[in-house]
Amino acid sequence: MIRSSVTISLVPEARGGPFVFWDDHAAACREAKRLGFDAVEVFAPGDVDAAALRRSLDDNGLKMAAMGTGAGWVLHRLTLTSPDAEKRQQASRYIHDVIDLAGSFGAPAIIGSMQGRHGEGVDKKKATAYLVESLVPLSEHARKHGVPLLLEPLNRYETNLINTVEDGVRLLGSLATDNVKLLVDLFHMNIEEADVAAAIRAGANAIGHVHFVDSNRRPAGCGHTDFAPIAAALRDIQYNGYLSAEALPYPDPVAAASRTMQTYQKFFAAK
Questions:
Q1: Which CATH architecture has domain 3-267?
Q2: How many CB atoms are located within 10 Å of the residue 145 CB?
Q3: Is 41 a catalytic residue?
Q4: What are the tens digits of pLDDT across the range 21-33?
Q5: Is 140 a catalytic residue?
């Protein structure tokens, strides 16, 4: 069964980013429950009150789908491919802590913007080596919590390292671990993939999480993405994870979440 999730950002500095709900996780969880979501995905700083967050989930019968690490970039400008070895170590420690936090909820952590990029004295080969060097121990740490580590290919305007599902599958094949999965984001795929459904089929068992969003980063159903072939492809690969709405709160959070749920029910909910 393909399950539904909606994003909540608890990082004020990330305002303007593609998150449906903001700041108040208790109110967001109540709304997510009302609309019928199965889970939430949280973008949080390292000092989030985990006990309060757990109460918000439990009070509304929601699961934690995943937790983002991007606050490490937004707040501290940390990446795993920095030319500065100390910065790379700080980035790994930050992600390590998010893995522990997410793992306490039975959820995976996401590496998106913290993968970094090549340039500024680090060529692509070296940046990729730095990324591989970090992913292996981090993913093995995630294994202790019984969850994978998620790596998200991003579009060319956000990174020049891992842009497509093919790039991600190739990188995963080079790792001395099988505990890294790909997060495929339909917005990024709309930019980078020639055929989104074909890329999903090619990624198959490497795919561990999906960001559910339209072509213009508005909620699913507010752009030109054709979700029918995407739904067919996900069923063909027997995907049974989350579709998580990482979308702009257009025109407002409640309307964005409601439109997402309508599109989810039309194309993905069990018949």
A1: Alpha-Beta Barrel (3.20)
A2: 18
A3: no
A4: 999 999 999 999 9
A5: no
Render pLDDT for 60-87 as a digit per residue (tens, 0 to 9): 999 999 999 999 999 999 999 999 999 9
CA distance 10 to 19: 10
Decide if 131 contacts 90 (C-beta within 8 A).
no
First to last CA, the chain: 10
Catalytic pick from 31, 41, 152, 192?
152
Catalytic residue, candidates 31, 192, 193, 246: 246
Rounded Cα gap, residues 112 and 151, in angstroms: 6
The H-or-E segment that residue 242 falls in is strand 242-245
> 199, 189 in Cβ contact below 8 A?
yes
| Class of residue 253 by CB neighbours under 10 A (exposed 0-12, middle 13-18, buried 19+) | buried
The pTM score is 0.96
